[in-house]
Write a structure and sequence with these properties.
By secondary structure, the chain is α/β, with parallel strands linked by helices. Helices cover about 45% and strands about 10% of the residues. It contains 18 helices and 12 strands.
């Protein structure tokens, strides 16, 4: 049975590279009806923190990645000491100043990588390495090999930055008389310019993407496209579809560029495709954290979401664009075009008539509201846009936004009339 693992170190939050490794390892196991293990590599007792463990687990669950078992290396120190002692007894390791060193028996090592093909290692940087540190904690390569072997890991899927560890680990497998697993090394995630990723590009942690209003479906889809291509130019993948299609042979050898515009495009697609009810929870969380809302009914918030979901890339865009739906203190934009519209006080009588016509609308829906606008424009013999622009500013403070008639329906008659009256008073007070 195939068994894969993801082995994060809880010395920091879960980043894009780690999330992709977890996703690809999870997909490979699930595709082949195998098992997926989560191993917390918390051997660095100084730097490992519980808050990082909690964030890693929460982020994986949020992405839809589950696991069949979880182990913590900090609970297995006696096991590593036991195997270090076995190597000492074989004469393959020795102790010096409280640390245990392993002596590599190296010639040439060939590895048939499942992504990259044959990799040949002709030398090692040094003839020996510490496997147990003087404080009793195990070195990375040593405990990694023991755990992968004893926990039955058949396929080690990880980033290409671990390629240099592979020959050392193979020698440890052989010295401990363990079966050597298959290896698959994923390409690096690169910056848009082709260099190594940095904090400059995107958020630093999966939890930060969540706070910025990205949906898990979009992030998973984006991670899939960072190095995996099934060959038919398809770009939209659900987890279920990816699970059916995923194969390591379809993973690219070259690095994958992190393009934020692509992530935004995918997120906009999933926002637009979702129902307002599906977006309700994350949208409320974001708006509450930003202080935009406190007590707002689910029904009203769903109406606001529906108004904007075809126009935004991230749910966090609601903080700026939808604030007028929750606050009465509308502040008019100060750009030149807005000032020009607000300076046209001759519109006062036209908008006053429009307000009266809107107040008479009984079935307060977008269709009837539009009818009131058209009736007013015909009576005044003015273009519809000459009424739309000042009213949009009165209601939202902006010249640009979602459909005005739909916006008015969401705001309701009382708010709409009050905000139009505020604009009329603005003109009356500045009528010199």
């Amino acid at each position: 049975m195939i068994k894969t693992r993801f082995a994060p170190s809880p010395t920091g939050f879960l980043h894009m590279g780690g999330a992709r490794t977890a996703l690809f390892s999870w997909l490979y196991a699930r595709k082949h009806e195998g098992k997926f293990l989560l191993r917390i590599e918390d051997t660095d007792l100084q730097r490992s923190r519980q808050e990082y463990i909690e964030e890693i687990l929460t982020s994986l669950k949020w992405l839809g990645i589950d696991w069949d078992e979880i182990v913590y290396q900090s609970q297995r120190f006696s096991l590593y000491q036991e195997y270090a002692q076995k190597l000492k007894q074989k004469g393959l390791a020795y102790e010096k100043e409280g640390a245990v060193f392993f002596k590599y028996n190296f010639n040439q090592i060939e590895v048939e990588d499942l992504i990259r093909g044959k990799i040949v290692f002709k030398e090692l940087p040094k003839p020996e390495d510490v496997i147990i540190k003087s404080d009793g904690s195990p070195a990375y390569n040593f405990c990694c090999v023991i755990d992968d072997a004893l926990l039955g890991i058949t396929h080690v899927i990880r980033g290409e930055d671990h390629i240099s560890n592979t020959p050392k680990q193979i020698l440890l497998y052989k010295a401990l008389e363990f079966d050597v697993p298959f290896f698959a090394h994923l390409p690096l995630i690169l910056s848009p310019g082709g260099g190594r990723m940095s904090k400059r590009f995107g958020a630093t942690a999966i939890s930060e993407y969540r706070r910025q209003g990205y949906l898990p479906q979009a992030l998973v889809n984006f991670l899939l496209l960072l190095g995996w291509s099934p060959g038919d130019n398809q770009e939209i993948f659900s987890l279920d579809l990816a699970q059916d299609r995923f194969e390591l042979k379809d993973v690219n050898k070259s690095g994958a560029k992190f393009l934020l515009d692509k992530l935004d495009w995918l997120n906009a697609y999933y926002i637009k495709s979702a129902s307002p009810q599906e977006l309700l929870g994350p949208a409320r969380e974001i708006l509450e954290e930003a202080g935009v809302i406190s007590e707002v009914s689910d029904e009203y918030l769903c109406r606001v979401i529906k108004l904007f979901q075809g126009r935004i890339n991230r749910l966090s865009d609601l903080v700026e664009w939808a604030a007028f739906c929750f606050r009465d203190d509308v502040v008019y934009e100060s750009d030149e075009k807005t000032r020009k519209i607000l300076a046209n006080k001759k519109k006062l009588e036209e908008i006053e008539l429009l307000r009266q016509n809107i107040s008479r609308v009984e079935n307060f829906c977008a269709t009837e509201i539009e009818s009131a606008f058209r009736k007013t424009s015909e009576a005044l013999e003015v273009k519809l846009k000459d009424l739309v622009h000042p009213v949009r500013i009165a209601l939202t403070g902006r010249r640009i936004g979602p459909g005005l008639f739909e916006t008015i329906e969401v705001l309701g008659k009382e708010k709409t009339l009050r905000r139009i009256e505020n604009l009329l008073n603005y003109w009356r007070q500045n009528n010199d």
